[in-house]
Amino acid sequence: MTNGRVNPKATLEAQGITGLGNVYYNLIEPALVEAAVARGEGRLGKGGAFLCSTGQFTGRSPKDKFVVRTASVENTIWWENNAPMAPEAFDRLHADMLSHMKGGDYFVQDLFGGADPAHRLDVRVVTELAWHGLFIRHMLRRPDRAELDSFTPDWTIINCPTFKADPAKHGCRTETVIALNFDKKLILIGNTAYAGENKKSVFTLLNYILPEKGVMPMHCSANHAPGNLDETAIFFGLSGTGKTTLSAAPDRTLIGDDEHGWSDNGTFNFEGGCYAKTINLSAEAEPEIYATTHKFATVVENMVYDPETLELDFADKSLTENTRCAYPLEYISNASATGLGGMPKNVIMLTCDAYGVLPPIARLTPAQAMYHFLSGFTSKTPGTERGVVEPTPTFSTCFGAPFMPRRPEVYGKLLQEKIAKTGATCWLVNTGWSGGAFGTGRRMPIKATRALLSAALDGSLNKVKFRKDANFGFEVPVEVPGVDATLLDPRATWADKAAYDAQAAKLVKMFSENFGQYLPHIDADVKAAAIG
Ligand code: ATP
Ligand code: MN
């Protein structure tokens, strides 16, 4: 039976997906919550939030993600970073998944990836779980109801957590699979209920499609000064570096917290919602994000709560440290209604340095910015990926290697051109450790990071005195009003200076060893910015 609203010419049957039980097209939030609760997928929490757990998978499974190796993408995919799947294996996976789905009820959401109509993707997401439909409806951008009557999906994602892949037959690694087929414009996800896979699949697609149109896709958050798109800032950063936290600033208009494009018209959000970490989320430090956990239909993932009072325990990591909530942007009071920003005036690269070596803020030349963009240094936070249990230093190029189907230089060149054209000021911000490495020092106070960012964005930081960092060559402010001057010089925060110097030397060496792979592909000025 077909329920809901859909383009009659673009039903699942029209796409060859037949024999299902009930199909629910484009249900709105209350109906999805109702269905999810009725099906026992989770519970209604305080304020009407939807509380659920994702089972075995509480983070992404990057090693189980595959790109189908077809002739049309053979020469453009970065195969060293994207595991290939044979087209025949994908076809078997597709057929087996469709036969597994027979008789089951499914939820279909027709949505846009991209706030700029010139560059958006029309994506259909077919989910076995009602709450996955709710999640992706929060996360992507919703067409007007009337637009649904003619909505024709460009791409289709089928997400079926009860389907287990067979590595021998389907050419994958385990029973879990995320397979992208650029020829069939189809993504198949099996054996994981972690909702983040849905949104990051769309991100991966846009990362492939947009560079050909001269648009830079970015793993970044973005905001602008209220009423002034000329004062747009973007915040690149890997998971846990503070994109979501720092873009939701009380004195700025939030464009988005995770994925954006930079075109000749300015910046645009790919999404329509946010996916925030909730571990130790405090009402004092992050009031807006905290409030969303008690709003109707917010998806609250893997948080432990009192079964009787439904009180959420923000400190409980027993299901995972990667507890999350997903909510539409309009739940944040100062969010942009359009998802559109101007040309970035400030480009911030966030890193969470668990070594405690990098300064809390540094100003970068365009060549240094390119160096840090290609390096993508951070420490992985526990939980976001399976198997990561303590902050682990890593290099993930373009601040998002798991989502980059093309070679890093493609994105690097695009960003370099955009920065050269607009003259954006670039900054490196360490939201990680200070006063020692993880274990000895402590995490940078959010208040200090916010104060430094405010000074960078309002231009006042450009007027202070800078010193040149001996290890990294970038410029570091010596004194910033409202910020403890000791904090600005990481070496000064360490009790044992020799230990700092040794740690810094180790990090410089790691940067230089990692960067070797890019040397054959980059310009002389970026080469000159290479350290070590
Ligand atoms: P993801 O890509 O996984 O969504 P993210 O970049 O959005 O990650 P956040 O969700 O903002 O990262 O997570 C940053 C975490 O670090 C939050 O839990 C925040 O409270 C904590 N934190 C601690 N100190 C700082 C700091 N100085 N700046 C930013 N975040 C900090
Ligand atoms: Mn985030």
Automatic annotation (TrEMBL):
It holds the Pfam family PEPCK_ATP. The gene is pckA. Involved in the gluconeogenesis. Catalyzes the conversion of oxaloacetate (OAA) to phosphoenolpyruvate (PEP) through direct phosphoryl transfer between the nucleoside triphosphate and OAA. It comes from Tabrizicola oligotrophica. It catalyses: oxaloacetate + ATP = phosphoenolpyruvate + ADP + CO2. Belongs to the phosphoenolpyruvate carboxykinase (ATP) family. Gene3D superfamilies: 3.90.228.20, Phosphoenolpyruvate Carboxykinase, domain 1 (3.40.449.10), Phosphoenolpyruvate Carboxykinase, domain 2 (2.170.8.10). Binds 1 Mn(2+) ion per subunit. It is found in: Cytoplasm. Its cofactor is Mn(2+). NCBIfam families: pckA (TIGR00224), PRK09344.1-2 (NF006820), PRK09344.1-3 (NF006821), PRK09344.1-4 (NF006822). GO terms for biological process: gluconeogenesis. It is an enzyme of class 4 (lyase). It comes from the Bacteria. One of its GO terms (cellular component) is cytosol. Keywords: ATP-binding, Cytoplasm, Decarboxylase, Gluconeogenesis, Kinase, Lyase, Manganese, Metal-binding, Nucleotide-binding, Pyruvate, Transferase. InterPro entries: PEP_carboxykinase_ATP, PEP_carboxykinase_C, PEP_carboxykinase_N. This is Phosphoenolpyruvate carboxykinase (ATP). Pathway: Carbohydrate biosynthesis; gluconeogenesis. HAMAP family: PEPCK_ATP. Its EC number is 4.1.1.49. One of its GO terms (molecular function) is phosphoenolpyruvate carboxykinase (ATP) activity. ATP binds at K200, H219, G237, L238, S239, G240, T241, G242, K243, T244, T245, E286, R324, T449. Substrate binds at R60, Y194, K200, R324. Mn(2+) binds at K200, H219, D258.
